[in-house]
C-alpha cells in the first residue's frame, strides 16, 4: 500500500475555559492561550509523561520519549511493556509535557502506526531529537514486531503558571 502524506488539520482546536467549579476562573475568552503556545511546548519537550490504565483499573504513569508531528503525538515502547499491554486493553491515554509550570496535557486514543514509511520517519526523528542510535530498533519496528503508537488529541489543557489561572485553557479538537 503506498504511503499517503498526512496533512495536519488546518483548523485550530477550539479554545475555551476548562470546567473547574470553585477555582474562580474568569468568564469569557480574554486571556486564553493560542494553540501555538501548546504546540511549541509539545514539540520542544524532551521527556513526556504517559498515563494509561491497567486491565484491573489501576493507573500507570511513566516517562517516555516522543515526538509531536502533524498534530499528533508519536512514541515507541516495547511490545511487552506495561504501557503496551495497557493500551492493548484500553487505548485511552493522557500525555503530559515535562515542565509543570508550563504544562500541556493531551487526552486521546493511542493507535498503532502501521505505515512503514511513517515508522521510518519517526525512528529517524527520534534519533535526531535525542541523539540516540536507533539502529538496533529499526528491524523490529519496521517489520511491525515492535509498536509505534500515535495519539491524536481529543482535548488538551494548558497552564502557564506565570500568567496565572486567567490563562488556563482547554482546547477541543474536531476530527473527521
The low-confidence runs, each spanning 5 or more residues with pLDDT under 50, are 1-9
CATH C-level class of one domain is Mainly Beta
Terminal-residue CA separation: 22 Å
Radius of gyration of CA atoms, rounded to a whole number: 17 Å
pLDDT averaged over residues:
92
Number of strands: 9
Oligomeric state of the chains in view: single chain
CATH topology of one domain: Pnp Oxidase, Chain A
Distinct helical segment count: 4
CATH superfamily of one domain: Electron Transport, Fmn-binding Protein, Chain A
Major sheet size, sense and barrel closure: 9 strands, antiparallel
**In one word, what is the shape?**
globular
Series of H and E elements:
EHEEEEHEEHHEE
Describe this structure in words.
The longest helix has 15 residues, at 116-130. α3 runs antiparallel to α4 (135-142). Strands 1, 2, 3, 4, 5, 6, 7, 8 and 9 form a 9-stranded antiparallel beta sheet that branches. The protein is globular. The protein is α+β, with helices and mostly antiparallel strands. A hairpin with a 4-residue loop joins β6 and β7 (102-112). It has a domain at 32-113 and 147-168: Pnp Oxidase, Chain A (Roll). It is built from 4 helices and 9 strands; from the N terminus they run βαββββαββααββ. The protein has helices at residues 35-44, 82-89, 116-130, 135-142, and strands at residues 14-16, 48-53, 59-64, 67-69, 72-76, 92-97, 102-112, 148-160, 169-172. 23% of the residues lie in helices and 32% in strands.
Structure in a nutshell:
The chain is α+β, with helices and mostly antiparallel strands and 176 residues long. It is 23% helix and 32% strand.
Amino acid at each position: 500500500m503506498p504511503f499517503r502524506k498526512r496533512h495536519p488539520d488546518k483548523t485550530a482546536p477550539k479554545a475555551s475555559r476548562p470546567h473547574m467549579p470553585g477555582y474562580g476562573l474568569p468568564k469569557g475568552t480574554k486571556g486564553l492561550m493560542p494553540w501555538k503556545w501548546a504546540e511549541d511546548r509539545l514539540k520542544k519537550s524532551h521527556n513526556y509523561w504517559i498515563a494509561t490504565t491497567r486491565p484491573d483499573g489501576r493507573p500507570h504513569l511513566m516517562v517516555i520519549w516522543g515526538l509531536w508531528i502533524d498534530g499528533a503525538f508519536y512514541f515507541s515502547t516495547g511490545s511487552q511493556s506495561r504501557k503496551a499491554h495497557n493500551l492493548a486493553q484500553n487505548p485511552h491515554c493522557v500525555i503530559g509535557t515535562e515542565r509543570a509550570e508550563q504544562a500541556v496535557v493531551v487526552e486521546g486514543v493511542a493507535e498503532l502506526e502501521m505505515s512503514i514509511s511513517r515508522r521510518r520517519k519517526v525512528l529517524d526523528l527520534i534519533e535526531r531529537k535525542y541523539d540516540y542510535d536507533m539502529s538496533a530498533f529499526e528491524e523490529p519496528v519496521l517489520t511491525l514486531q515492535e509498536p509505534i503508537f500515535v495519539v491524536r488529541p481529543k482535548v488538551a489543557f494548558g497552564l502557564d503558571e506565570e500568567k496565572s489561572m486567567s490563562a488556563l485553557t482547554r482546547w477541543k479538537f474536531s476530527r473527521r
